[in-house]
Amino acid sequence: MKEPPCVVSSVRTESRGAQPARVDAPMVNRDAAHAAPLVIGIGGTTRPGSSTEQALRLSLRAAKAEGAETVLLAGHALRLPMYSPETAERSPEAMRLIDLLRRCDGLIIASPSYHGSVSGLVKNALDYAEDLSADERVYFDGCPIGLIAVAAGWQGAGQTLAAMRSIAHSLRGWPTPLGAMLNSTMQRFDEAGDCLDPSAKIQLEDVGRQVVQFLRMQRAAQIPLQGRCA
Length: 230
Ligand SMILES: Cc1cc2nc3c(=O)[nH]c(=O)nc-3n(C[C@H](O)[C@H](O)[C@H](O)COP(=O)(O)O)c2cc1C
Description:
33% of the residues lie in helices and 16% in strands. Strand 1, helix 1 (51-65) and strand 2 form a beta-alpha-beta unit. The two termini are 31 Å apart. The chain is globular. It contains five helices and seven strands. It has one domain: Rossmann fold (3-Layer(aba) Sandwich), CATH 3.40.50.360. By secondary structure, it is α/β, with parallel strands linked by helices. Flavin mononucleotide binds at residues 45, 47, 50-52, 112-116, 150-153, 156, 184.
């Protein structure tokens, strides 16, 4: 992907407030003007091979093909203690999540529909974004967020996608124009992780692509990704 000059820098060296310690994971050089944008995929269920995780993987793969660096946080990586706002103590896994949320340029979130809304596992992971509330870039201000809802029926998928859009707005993100809904009773995946329903596959890929396309437009317009509303 040919990148125009940009003013994007996702490295934050300090943050305000009583934030938990940061993990300096060995990732890309985020200072480089032409660094690939970092897109984090969060979601799935604790069930190995869950359709939600497969949907997320597919979407993330499309974001990568579009030029992003991608990191997947799914399943057991999301088995975190319940988010506690009253303390700055965080488990190592939670610190890694917070660090990635802080560094990311864009997100793709995939949740199963549990009783008509986002699952507790995914919501608890997103609750950790509260630790970004006093950052220079507040929450995901200016970040594109792709959303995927997976359910055993269309009603649950629609309700869950609407709930996810609401969460993305609350976190100051920009939900992509297309949100993907998957009905896991009809739309399945093969062993290679490809969705057997061509139209569902295209939707999932488009969500990943739109996240990166938004970032490309942002860079072309030279809009700083952080520090606008702190
Ligand atoms: C606790 C629980 C609640 C659920 N609630 C709904 C629901 O309200 N509507 C729906 O369509 N499916 C519901 N489902 C089904 C899941 O959304 C569905 O299986 C989805 O495909 C997630 O499966 P996965 O584990 O393969 O990702 C529920 C499943 C569980 C375990």
